[in-house]
């Protein structure tokens, strides 16, 4: 008897699921940040901590670690040699190191054809049709990630300064932002100068809150983002597809604002990314009949 | 007998003009960077070096430095205590420390009413009517400086990545940018991650070059910038005004692309910013009749 392992790791934390060969989850463990882009050693440490915790949760001795077959979905795994370097340092029998997007896709749409847009601080499009998986978008908030939280927040600060200069109309939202920065535009400039993507993202809730009460600036910012998201969908999601899920913290917030042609294809995600990792472990390591083709 | 001094200082260098009490320029000196935002001591050192060089150029002994009345137009002088701190450290009899924008305005429009837009790496609007001077825009390229070179370059990289993903149409310009980054979008992301405003600005020439041959992406990027510039002018430039000058490295490039209603108000700048500093020195320190009101 041996076990399967699914890992879902990113900047905010790492989760591990220990499963039997049918994909039934036996135990789940959690740990800290596992971003192989920013700190490979810490990522490896937290992956092993979460794995140990999953063994403990399942009541199974962790001495089985060497016989595990694992699928790891990790932020930054698709960049350079990150996946290969991590894989070489892991104690598992088998390991498939994928981007976090691929396990999110599998979790959300299962073995169906379909498309997901992961809308968090950034944004990423993934479509699967048969054994073909296509990625688009991402690229970081400076010159990409359209529709993501960092871009929304940055856009709101720009609109607020334009309203301050009376170049564009103010609204209750831009006035609320000015108050947040003590009515001093230089405070906005200072904040923006030092802001991380997450810092810009802290402005997202106020945008959706004011959009809910029809604030003109909030609605305009969101409409631009929705047009950009749908421009991506028009490209990546074939007209035949009937399954679209918006994932990430902003996914549910955008759903009701999509155009009718995409609203009608929206489906709740079937499962989360961790379940997706376990499914991919079954498909790759336990199933005789299906071999998952990854890009 | 005493002398007047005009100083034009910014990140790329410092110029000093020694003049008589009528504003006739007797000698000009140059030195290095004088940005009081980034390095106050270096700025002060280069201001004095340029002043010494102006004395030398005029063949006048620099022992007169303590009797000078000076107007200094300096990048960053309008932020916090920069102007007051610099002034306290200068050996001149009188000194008026202004933003670089104000001496550029005076140089360009003289004592007339009018509006200037300074379009370099950033962008800044200044309008004067009678004794009232109004500033708008600026704020840095992260959440402002619309129409400036950093914003143009950043926009081009974003469009190039959108074309790479086939979210938006490619053009010869986006293909040329891809080639510049070895057809690897990750190279664009890396560049953008580390880019200074000036780095983004290095993409400006290619935009205007391709716009000149009607490249659709180049034209679209410039049209957005022009709409933003004119939105600013619609706000800051009163309909009565008949004098508009576009300054900075990008000013002449934008001129022929303005709408007719602003084209007809375009006037070549009367003088440069250094001459503007000398004029303001005459107005403030030598003229009995006129007192220049600054903001």
TrEMBL record, chains A, B:
Domain named ATPase BadF/BadG/BcrA/BcrD type: residues: 5-239
Regions annotated as coiled coil: none
EC class name: transferase
Alphabetized CDD domains for the sequence: ASKHA_NBD_GspK-like
InterPro entries: ATPase_BadF, ATPase_NBD, Euk-type_GlcNAc_Kinase
One Gene Ontology term of the molecular function aspect: glucosamine kinase activity
TM region positions: none
The EC number(s) this enzyme carries: 2.7.1.8
Origin superkingdom: Bacteria
Keyword Kinase: yes
Keyword set, alphabetical order: Kinase, Transferase
Protein's name in the database: Glucosamine kinase
UniProt organism field: Phyllobacterium ifriqiyense
């Amino acid at each position: 008897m041996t076990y399967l392992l699914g890992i879902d790791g990113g900047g905010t934390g790492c989760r591990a699921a220990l499963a039997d060969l049918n994909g039934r989850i036996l135990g789940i463990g959690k740990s800290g940040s596992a971003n192989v882009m920013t700190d490979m050693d810490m990522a490896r440490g937290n992956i092993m901590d979460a794995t140990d915790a999953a063994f403990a949760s399942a009541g199974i001795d962790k001495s089985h670690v060497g016989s595990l077959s694992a699928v790891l979905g990790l932020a930054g795994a698709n960049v350079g040699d990150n996946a290969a370097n991590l894989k070489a340092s892991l104690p598992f029998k088998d390991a498939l190191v994928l981007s976090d997007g691929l396990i999110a896709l599998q979790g959300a749409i299962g073995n169906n054809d379909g498309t997901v847009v992961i809308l968090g601080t950034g944004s990423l499009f993934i479509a699967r049709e048969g054994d073909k998986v296509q990625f688009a978008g991402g690229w970081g908030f400076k010159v990409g990630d359209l529709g993501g939280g960092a871009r929304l927040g940055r856009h709101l600060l720009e609109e607020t300064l334009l309203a301050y200069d009376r170049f564009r109309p103010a609204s209750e939202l831009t006035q609320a932002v000015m108050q947040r920065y003590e009515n001093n535009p230089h405070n906005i400039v200072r904040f923006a100068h030092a802001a991380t993507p997450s810092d810009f993202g802290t402005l997202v809730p106020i945008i959706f809150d004011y959009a809910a009460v029809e604030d003109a600036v909030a609605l305009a910012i969101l409409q631009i983002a929705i047009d950009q998201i749908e421009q991506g969908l028009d490209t990546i999601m074939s007209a035949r597809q009937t399954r679209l899920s918006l994932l990430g913290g902003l996914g549910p917030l955008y759903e009701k604002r999509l155009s009718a042609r995409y609203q009608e294809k929206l489906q709740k995600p079937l499962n989360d990314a961790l379940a997706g990792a376990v499914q991919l472990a079954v498909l790759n390591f336990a199933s005789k009949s299906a071999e998952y083709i990854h890009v």
